[in-house]
Amino acid sequence: MSETLKEIGEPATKEAKQALVVFTPSGRRGRFPVGTPVLKAARSLGVDIDSVCGGRGICGRCQIQPEIGDFAKHGISSRAENVSPGNEVEARYAKKRGMKADRRLSCQSLVQGDLVVDVPADSQVHKQVVRKRAEVRDIELDPAMRLHYVEVEEPDMHNPTGDLERLIAALKSQWSLTDLECDLRTLQGLQQALRKGEWKVTVAVHRGQVITAIWPGFQGNAYGMAVDVGSTTIAAHLCDLQTGEVLASSGVMNPQIRFGEDLMSRVSYVMMNPGGDRAMTAAVRDALNTLTEAVAEEAGIDRTLILNATFVGNPIMHHLLLGMDPTELGGAPFALAANSGMTLWATELELNINQDGRVYVLPCIAGHVGADTAGVILSEQPHLAEDITLVVDVGTNAEIVLGNKQRLLACSSPTGPAFEGAQISCGQRAAPGAIERVRIDPETLEPRFKVIGSDLWSDEPGFAAETKKTGVTGVCGSGIIEVLAEMFLAGLLLTDGTINGEMAAKTPRIQPDGRTFSYLLHEGDGKGDGEPELRITQNDVRAIQLGKAALYAGIRLLMDRLGVEQVERIMLAGAFGSHIDVKYAMILGMIPDCPLEKVHSAGNAAGTGARIALLNQKTRDDIESVVKKVEKIETAVEAKFQEHFVQAMGIPHTTAVFPHLAEAVELPAPSVKAAPEGDEDGGGRRRRRRRS
Amino acid sequence: MSETLKEIGEPATKEAKQALVVFTPSGRRGRFPVGTPVLKAARSLGVDIDSVCGGRGICGRCQIQPEIGDFAKHGISSRAENVSPGNEVEARYAKKRGMKADRRLSCQSLVQGDLVVDVPADSQVHKQVVRKRAEVRDIELDPAMRLHYVEVEEPDMHNPTGDLERLIAALKSQWSLTDLECDLRTLQGLQQALRKGEWKVTVAVHRGQVITAIWPGFQGNAYGMAVDVGSTTIAAHLCDLQTGEVLASSGVMNPQIRFGEDLMSRVSYVMMNPGGDRAMTAAVRDALNTLTEAVAEEAGIDRTLILNATFVGNPIMHHLLLGMDPTELGGAPFALAANSGMTLWATELELNINQDGRVYVLPCIAGHVGADTAGVILSEQPHLAEDITLVVDVGTNAEIVLGNKQRLLACSSPTGPAFEGAQISCGQRAAPGAIERVRIDPETLEPRFKVIGSDLWSDEPGFAAETKKTGVTGVCGSGIIEVLAEMFLAGLLLTDGTINGEMAAKTPRIQPDGRTFSYLLHEGDGKGDGEPELRITQNDVRAIQLGKAALYAGIRLLMDRLGVEQVERIMLAGAFGSHIDVKYAMILGMIPDCPLEKVHSAGNAAGTGARIALLNQKTRDDIESVVKKVEKIETAVEAKFQEHFVQAMGIPHTTAVFPHLAEAVELPAPSVKAAPEGDEDGGGRRRRRRRS
Description:
2 copies of one chain form a homodimer.
Chain A: E1 7-9, E2 18-24, E3 29-33, H1 38-44, E4 63-67, E5 69-71, E6 76-78, H2 88-97, E7 104-105, E8 115-118, E9 128-129, E10 139-140, E11 145-151, H3 163-175, E12 181-182, H4 184-188, H5 190-196, E13 200-206, E14 210-216, E15 223-229, E16 233-240, E17 246-253, H6 263-272, H7 276-299, E18 306-313, H8 315-321, E19 342-345, E20 358-361, H9 371-380, E21 389-393, E22 398-403, E23 408-413, E24 434-440, E25 447-451, H10 463-466, E26 474-475, H11 477-489, E27 510-513, E28 516-522, E29 534-536, H12 538-562, E30 569-573, H13 574-579, H14 582-587, E31 599-603, H15 605-615, H16 618-629, E32 631-633, H17 639-647, H18 659-664
Parallel strand pairs in A: 1-3, 2-8, 12-14, 15-18, 18-20, 21-30, 23-32, 24-26, 30-31
Antiparallel strand pairs in A: 2-3, 4-7, 4-8, 5-6, 9-10, 11-13, 13-14, 15-16, 16-17, 19-20, 21-22, 22-23, 24-25, 27-28, 28-29
């Protein structure tokens, strides 16, 4: 028996026989009088066991597993008879809701002798919600909205307190909740709920402070919604606030697209159309309600049980969601109306969840770095890392975060829409039929590719049949990255980004195109209305070069500020980041050199950040304080940015070296074409673009 | 020079010449370097000087008066040249807004030498708002909603904080306001206001916590509304929150009357008509908006400058105003939905004041003792009294408060509608043409009276001409009290309330009326459709007896509980209390014996309480804590109440003595008629009635 573990519990009395109880996995132990409910013993030791009904055998959340046997390491002989047999309450619960044979309700089980009790993960209040990726921490469940079942004293005309005041008193005595307030709308239904529930009700309490909903009797389900308001799509996850589980996910197009494809065109719309901001606010809120309906239906739940929602979005989406005119974000100094996180009533956003549901909108960081980046930070936790960590969320604008637990820097860089297939002659959005993978044979210079919707390479048998339905319609962002990188590796593309016309001698796919050359990727079917011819033109290369140079320059600027020459870990966030092969991104010089095994795709990290803020209320305070400490860099006014940008136009870079990449890939020697082309869209013509 | 007054101020330095400044009336004094603004000197000494603009010479609230001369008691020779001459800013203010010749703006006046400075009452933040009645304390101005003019830093893209965060920082540095929040709706207009005002704005801050409104530039006006929601009439006072002055008062009929004349009939309506509570809530809120328009128009102000409103009302009005079903208040145990005071958004009550205006609803005390009684306590302050103080608010129910600074008790007693002229054969509401004063000659037994609308007695010349327009149409509450009391003094009414038939021998005005008698008060014009005949019947007397016995019994019950046999001070609140002659009320035994000079009419004390809560935020906390400590007595279930009630049926009382009253009035000896009348509506048939 370990002497280091502290033994506490009920004080020994002459009358009461004491028993030793050890809880696993925590190892907490104490002596308790025979007859003590196991739940009570656990609580007095600070063992984390959930309960919504407060020990009345209704909710079933406090299940434990008595471990029977001799446990030398605990010094306990834990026998079956050392816990009371199941009573009627427990039998009723098991019959109604089902319970595993070896499980017991800890509130109904009494200590009868020495006992080892296991608390399964699903019975813990602060359970870990597991994330699939190995490189990130799990989420500790601690939702802002909690349910409490409570028995309220009936009114007494000799001591005429209000029903609300008696409810508050009951929540204090039964749940140790103090200084509670109550929403007026909830109060309007309070008297009926208390009487219908015969003075037993379940209440939802927001952040331990405000009673936001009330139901007669026992109500064990509470849901939350984590929403990423992107400029193109709005995505929502419906979560069970008791388990942390994602019950449904859905996405809709952002209907603001009809006001403008990208963010800047939406801001222009507002500037030119008085009331345009209100129209866009109404549009996004409508879409949110459609989405709410969709996830509630998918999960088969009543949307009034959605009690909490969290939102992330870039600054313009953030402002439009909140009904704030985004005009100021359209020009320097890019002033946010507010940058702090906000807790609001759902009704303030006209969101059709529970009428007193609460909404939390994550904080913005700067005029170009929004609540979406705050979500990315919450998901990827660079502020907790030992390693110098780079997190990049690539869109029309790229948001870049760099640093570790000591310092964290952030900026936004205007990468333009090329990575999403726009401004590329053969570009298209990622959809079935789009080329997403490309390989070029270094000898024959012949390409092969994969399209979305098929697992076959284009040179494999059956490819034509499998892609007959979709056809080969264009090249999406990841396909563009790969074809350019492969062209570079094959010598078709020079360091300065010129398509090498000299290679026309070696392959008919290099073809003159005015004063420049292009690479024929796919012949098409030769009919004008059928499968198109897909070729990579010099202009396509220039568009990607502009984007990747802007991204690299932004990263490099942060590295300068942080005083580092190397990053130790890279996370690529966003839809684009999830689909590109990081090796090709590095070959093109989108990201700086780094061991390839240290580069990960983070998926929709912004949306994950919203989910973390939904499931764990403390992370809201965390992110607010992290965001305050982030050093914000405005690339638009940094002289050094232009310099870095010009240097970064080369592939992978005009001057920087990529030693880790060179270990994995055989990079061609630096090459340049003799004369620069004056007629191309070079690095000079630039304007700020927003992520769309 | 007094050595007891502490001298503080800026620390003396070798360079700066120091001057002694004394502020009156506070007597605070200190030494300051020559050149210090007088406002700054005052603030550093804690002298109470107002300022909205923060010392920029815009608001004119910091005016002071330099006192010129030799002040031996201060040891100062205060010369004209010891304060700097008026500068341009001051001249501009004086030209634009006007300023008395001897006044100066303290923010623009610099100390040049020893000085005596008077701070006039209207320049104090915490000015006293004078109440007309000598027996109550003045109100110290300290409104929940305050205006602050502030200069905000412009956005800087190198330090990209939100406009809100910079506003909050400015309010912290310029006004020492910390931990401020901001309403979303206010935030939605923030950016525009800041730019329109060129980074100078005025904000309204609620209770030092929430920014609730914002205006570009300087805005010096803020208004509030104190509302008494009575079951018959709703009355509002519009107040200037900077001066405490009442700018406009108005009243409307409570439109809920169409659902039921008195409170119980309205509760019945709700019970019998699903949704009836919502209809009544909508009706009262509509009326409130009509009233808001009316007072804003009367005062000539924009209703969006009404930033705060306070409400009192009985429990049923309180619940209906708040949108809470009053059904539970219709029967035992008379459970309130909530009894605490509530701070709400005006929009939650659909009140058309400023969109982010705040509303405070005073707390209720018990199921029959509402926020109106809380208002009465705030106005009459029995909880601060040394004397045993009785406060009575008479309506269909009477609310009774008894006690002093040690203990305070409250109850409600079902007095019925007789005091308001209902259930009285000749009764009517107080309106022109109603008899309100009555005298009966003890010799001739002839009556004379006054009607509302004329100052003449009915036996004075010109009475007929002056009352020709209104006629003599009935007897209002105060008239009923007087005629019964005069009948008693003249021997026409016996101690047990019987109209003395034996007196028919002495006057033709005593006339048989079935088995009882009546007293002919006014002959009328003899035409059925003209001026009616007005007589006091035995049933009329019984109705008043029931009401006054209930009132007295409630008071007596509280006296028992408090353990006193005498009250030392009486306040009569409410419209009825304002109009009755307290002597007659005591002759009838409505209130217990007390020196007549200690009985006062408090007017609409509930409404005054609302005004106090509007003008002084601390009183809200005060009343919440007083209300918690009040001992609540439920008369309906007190056995002793019935006993007291029966004893109190006599005039003035069957057993109690009235020594103080007897000193002022010659009371007849106790008398009884031989046989009780079995056919009359005696004390047995009773039901709880609500004030209407």
